[in-house]
Design goal:
single chain, alpha/beta, Rossmann fold, Dihydrodipicolinate Reductase, domain 2, 11 helices, globular, GFO_IDH_MocA-like_dom, nucleotide binding, Gfo/Idh/MocA_oxidrdct_glycsds, Oxidoreductase
Length: 358
């Protein structure tokens, strides 16, 4: 796992099988983003069986099979879709191609697991909603900054336990390292990546909905800019937004591509959560100048001050819950409504954004 490059950040956790070998088989297609490795790790650790991999680029397939040699190389996506053993297809396509691939997968009778952001336009989202309704299949999205971060999962558990009362405000920080030279061309094409709020902003908005228990929110204000990359005019290297949820909880977040070279990891992702009886701060990937390890959670409430280091302690329950939801046709991992709402709001934030710097 590369700790310096968020594009190839692929967490590994405890093996917690919810199914036996061969009970839940999946295939992998579209290897355009390195998140597919983290998605695969999560599925395998929950007991899923990897059967196929396909990408038109043989070099990408070779690199993938170096990590997951059990995957057979499919000659086409159709070969995966026609396999009756395959229950789910995981994919990390170019962002503006993710929904069309998902629609194709679902029409073939398989559930779909996409990297975020799974949509770049409202038209894509509306079309996929129709396909979900028509087919009854599930369209999952890999919001890795919550689902694959033990500190964030633990913070959610503390909130559920009521240790800080009702959540009234969240402030989110999502800086990323740019690594401009290693990025593919599509990364700098706004039509393809969707804009910074649509892309990495999707992590932030999904967490806000989850931690505040909101099913909807309003975008009050958003802005984007390109401050330091004039050679890539379609890149947005900074974005922020302000939201208010149905229950009155508010959210301010900022995302950027300005992680300093001296930081030991790809981004100092943090979240500060204010409740009526306390506060939680999550330092996801590093505790700057103190510990290079991540998953630090700081809790303050009426009982005092506490620091939890939960790396290797919490695990990643989403993947097992997702598999069971696919088998049982339930919605325990997260609801389809929640997924679509998080994606809708990040698209709206992007559409409404004021351009503050070219």
């Amino acid at each position: 796992m590369s700790n310096k490059d968020g594009m190839n950040y692929a967490p590994k956790g405890k093996v917690n099988r919810v199914v036996d070998e061969g009970e839940f088989t999946f295939g992998v297609a579209a290897l355009d983003h390195g998140h597919i490795n983290g998605m695969t790790n999560g599925l395998l650790e929950a007991g899923a069986t990897l059967k196929w991999v396909y990408d038109p680029d043989p070099e990408k397939v070779k690199e993938y099979r170096e990590q997951f040699p059990q995957a057979e190389v499919a000659e086409s996506i159709d070969q995966i879709l026609k396999d009756p053993e395959v229950k789910l297809v995981a994919a990390a396509a170019i962002p503006n191609e993710r929904s069309a691939l998902g629609n194709r997968v679902m029409k073939a009778g398989k559930d779909y697991f996409s990297d975020k952001t799974a949509f770049t336009t409202m038209e894509q989202l509306e079309e996929t909603k129709k396909v979900v309704e028509e087919t009854g299949q599930k369209y999952w999205v890999y919001f890795s900054e919550r689902l694959h971060v033990e500190g964030a999962i633990f913070a959610g558990q503390l909130i559920e336990d009521g240790v800080i009362g009702d959540v009234i405000q969240i402030t989110g920080f999502g800086p990323h390292r740019l690594n401009k030279e290693s990025r593919p061309d599509w990364f700098f094409n706004k039509e393809q990546y969707g804009g910074i709020l649509c892309d990495i902003g999707s992590h932030q908005i999904e967490q806000f909905l989850t931690f505040t228990g909101n099913k909807d929110a309003e975008i009050l204000h958003s802005k984007v800019g390109n401050y330091a990359n004039p050679d890539k005019p379609e890149l947005e290297d900074y974005g922020d937004a302000t939201l208010v949820g149905e229950n009155g909880a508010t959210f301010i977040f900022k995302v950027d591509w300005f992680t300093p070279d001296g930081l030991s990891t790809w981004g100092d992702g943090r979240m500060f959560i204010t409740g009526t009886k306390g506060t939680i701060e999550v330092r996801k990937y590093v505790d700057v100048a103190k510990e290079e390890s991540g998953d630090h959670v700081y809790l303050v409430n009426e009982e005092g001050e506490k620091h939890y280091h939960v790396s290797g302690e919490v695990g990643f329950p989403f993947f097992g819950e997702m598999i069971k939801d696919c088998i049982d046709r339930t919605e325990n991992a997260m609801t389809q409504e929640h997924i679509f709402k998080a994606q809708e709001l990040c698209i709206l934030a992007q559409e409404k954004a004021i351009r503050v710097k070219n």
